[in-house]
Amino acid sequence: MTSDVQTAPTGRPDSVQRSIGWRDALRWEGGLVVVLIAVLIFGSAQSSSFLSQSTIFYAGINIGYIALMALPMTFIIMTGEIDLSVASMLGLAGSLMGFLWHHGWGIWPAIIAALVVGALGGALNGVLVAYTALPSIAVTIGTLTLFRGVAQILLGSLTVPGVGDPQFPDSMTKIGTQSIPGGALSYSTVLFLVLALLAGIVLHATPFGRALHAIGLQPEAASFSGVRVAWVKFCLFVVSGLICAVAGVLLTLQNASVSYTAGTGLELNVVAIVLFGGVSIFGGKGTIFGVLLSVIIFGALQMILTQTHVEAEKQLVITGLLLLISVIVANGRELLSRVRSRLAVGGGSR
Amino acid sequence: MTPTDEPRPVLELAGARKSFGAVHALVDGRIALRSGEAHALVGENGAGKSTLVNILAGVHQPDGGTLTVGGEDVVFNGPAAAREAGVSIIYQEPTLFPDLTVAENIFMGRQPLRSGRRIDRARMDEEARSIFKRLGVALDPRRVARGLSVADQQLVEIAKALSLSAKVLVMDEPTAALTGVEVQRLFDVMTTLQNDGAAVMFISHRLEEVFASCQRVTVMRDGKFVSSARIEETDVDTIIHQMVGRDLDSLFPKTATTPGEPVLEVRHLGREGVFDDVSFTVRAGEIVALAGLVGAGRSEVARAIFGIDPRTQGEVVVDGKRLEPGRPLAAMAAGIGLVPEDRRQQGLVMDMGIDQNFALASLRKLRRGGIMRRSSEQRLAKVWAERLQVKFGRLRDPAATLSGGNQQKVVIGKWLAREPSLLIIDEPTRGIDVGTKSEVHRIIDSLVQGGMAVLMISSELPEVLGMADRVVVLHEGRVTGNFARDEADETTIMRAATGQHGRDAA
Ligand SMILES: Nc1ncnc2c1ncn2[C@@H]1O[C@H](COP(=O)(O)OP(=O)(O)OP(=O)(O)O)[C@@H](O)[C@H]1O
Ligand SMILES: [Mg+2]
What we know:
By secondary structure, chain A is mainly alpha-helical.
């Protein structure tokens, strides 16, 4: 034996292994913490009210419903797939809720119908991705158009509540103007944080989460280990549809109104948040903690841009840039090694 | 040891060192390749052979040592530099572009051009054809690479090397995935290349292949050069001793056991177009080997039993209960484990930690109140790494950093951790060195003594004859023989495997 290659019996102490592992896993997240601090300092320098309760509340209002969709997206990207129909599903769910309200349904039946349609739309994506050989990017670009189209058929040029419609119940639309009792956070933020905690546990501490990693890294080996690859993917898309519907309901109530264009184009923000959070676009790598940091950074940036009166069009450019940066930087090492191994004609025989 | 009248080496590597973090993969890598000579490099799993190859390929930069080609010192700072210097590498699993034709693959990036920078297909095909002719093999340059056998893909890679006028051809375990006939054809090609003056380096764990095809053999152990000798000056026992650093006990440790109750009963199992009417029984404490030629449908039968592949007829009964088709989870719950044929695609998640790979089939068992703890996972990995004596750097390193044999041990360990009542092992010792091989055999033997049932698929007859209590032979998807240990010998099995024998399953 060479000196440092060890056979198992002379194992290195666990602590050493763990500390090195943590450093590896948290390198990207560490960078995000630095970025976050920088953004917060910059924001505070721009405006003295940056870290005030009301800023935090409105940041939550603006990013909360988007952040919600980033959670299932993280899972889906972990498995090497993608769901580009999220924002359209949000629009469809909100539109359906508005449509039913317009036709005299009660608020709860309308919400439940919206959630059911969310799950069904997710199931449609799921069946197509998991049980046919179609790539998810193609499937969900299709349903992106489809869901938005249905939303448009439902509402047309209508904004609900329109003339003659009752307003949505005050007790529910207050989530757009009031924080949770005894705190500065918006309801959507709290819902996101609770679900993020849950997602973190599922992804990092359950067999299901481990299966997601395995699927993203090597689907064939996963199925030879008893992972039901297709079923897992199907479930993820259903959950994604459902959560997007939840986001649609939230946004509708926050705004106290809805039109079929709700959330148009947000799928890119969602993908940007996830990738900037350090989730590999190739699947198999990433943490919920990273996504959480990324959400906060995006939320803070958005506030800064709004407070410094940058117009929406320019904000779009910035989202685009961040998307690019995150794909290139976050996945840069992997991209490089892929390019290299392609050039190396096989790379090695092991 | 080198007589002075020998020709100067075309390529010489001396004192090469390479470490990956704390792992000293190569401490003193040495090899001297001469033109017209086939040179074998042997050593245990993890001895550093592939690392040495990767240095010659320009894939790894050595931490030290000298490399001379044609008498001049060179530094390969990338694969292109190695290719330029006339060194071509054939990996065990070639990486062709599946949608391009054979000729396009050979001339990738250097296609002969006509006026107007258009590719001159006719000339390309013609040149490819003439290379194949030189090699004495019949391959159509115009067919696409997809669907070529591994052996044929290797030939395409060799043709590519020739088209680059390679002086040195390095082959890392080229025969591991080949059938007997294909191995022979590869040897013929090697001879042709040598006669044309090429220097060939050949890595294999099968020493009989080394003696059949090479003129010189270099032995490595623990990243160090041990010896280099002309083939007629050495013998198998000497080489094994140098590789392992000790004498090996008997190659096939086989303890006689009394088989117990049937664990697995396969009845009239069939899958449309793949295999048909396959029946056999495996009892507790018994090893049943599925023998046959490559392509006879053995792996397919195993996969259908485990539920990865569908089945269209018949039934599988485990411990008296019928097993649902097409559900690996059901098979696992019934106590079946499957060590698949292709460990790099199917057996391991290469980018996951060694510890996580060990745990991958036992995740539900590691769960307490829904939550899986990292520490229990590491404990499991530690226990099995120790028991199977896996050589590794750190348990959380990716499985890809393990040498081939150690990877195989992880796949076996991953299933043993579930304490299966039936373990199906497809090619248990492919790519595994002699020492580890007898170790794997010893592991299997002790498990069987403990009452486990084993269904083993092997293309190596000595392994089948040495280990199995019963041999079931498949030929073109049908059972053509079912022999007890004392009835089975090389001739009977080969006759059944080639379909010359009408004896039906019991
Ligand atoms: N990229 C890497 N990172 C860490 N360790 C590595 C890496 N590549 C190889 N090693 C280690 O270096 C040692 C030598 O590996 P190598 O693949 O050269 O062995 P080998 O002789 O080819 O074995 P085998 O016969 O099993 O293919 C092993 O212990 C292996 O784990
Ligand atoms: Mg090797």
